Amino acid sequence: MTDTMRAVVLDAPGPPEALQLRRLPIPNPGPGSVLIRVKAFGLNRSELHTRLGLADGVTFPRVLGIEAVGVVAASNGGEFTVGQQVAAMMGGMGRTYDGGYAEYTSVPTAQVIPFESGLDWATLGAVPEMLQTSNGSLTIGLDAQPGQSILIRGGTSSVGMTTAILAKQLGMTVLSTTRNPNKVDALKRIGVDHVVIDDGDIATAVRTIIDGGVDKALELIGTPTLPDTLRATRVHGVVCFTGMLSNEWTVDEFYPIDYLPRGVRLAAYGGDASDLSAEVLQGFLDAVAAGRATVPVHRVFTIDQIQEAHAYLESGNAAGKLVVTTAE
């Protein structure tokens, strides 16, 4: 092992060009930490928010990246063995300490999840945060059940597509939205039952498909579309607010009786590594390997293409996950 590594550094918020590939010392994992040789990492809206200066509590310079997959390079506590395949996510990665946009990252042991898979690293790199968010939204946020209907608002996002895949495995009827008619086929290919073109007002169309409204709805766009998503949901149905693709977080002058349709329940989900068990991660990867599930990877970049990758992330043109590999 050399003493230095390639890492993507953000000195201050700015455009994609603010992300600079540099050589930094390989981190020295302290007590309770694991050093991971990063093989791939997914791109997330959270990192876009940080680059744009929209994230709170981030200090600069910073190596971004709230997730990564790779192999253990060192484990001081002995919880993991050198060479073991692992995923790491959340817990301050890329925000309060340096994250996964690097060839090595040192993270707290609690953020590390082991797995075994023969899938390629680009596919594996797409999974951790995406699966954690989708699985947590379905199980914790929505308490989704077989036979129910679900509306996914923001269906061609990576989380939206993964949620559709998991919901179909659960036996749900899936409605997904997209603003772009060219993305309809991408949603149909992963098993979506009904694709709704999103013009900002879809409640009527949804209620035409599902009489009375859907049982569950996952809001991934944010507060601009939330009232319409609530109107698309039946009495005693549940809407889970998970994503903010619109970059709008808050509701001004929130008056619950006026804002919430009668009897519709509003929940929220924001998770951490502890919400994705090794069993759930391994089960999903095994299902992918067996052809029973798919990983919606839209495009793969190398780490020296990070500026291009972030520009693509910001464009909103992806239908699925953008992944970066660290291979030279």
From TrEMBL:
It holds the Pfam family ADH_zinc_N_2. Residues 14-324 form the Enoyl reductase (ER) domain. The keyword Oxidoreductase applies. It comes from the Bacteria. Keywords: NADP, Oxidoreductase. Coiled coil: none annotated. PANTHER family: QUINONE OXIDOREDUCTASE PIG3, QUINONE OXIDOREDUCTASE PIG3-RELATED. This is Zinc-binding alcohol dehydrogenase family protein. It comes from Antrihabitans spumae.
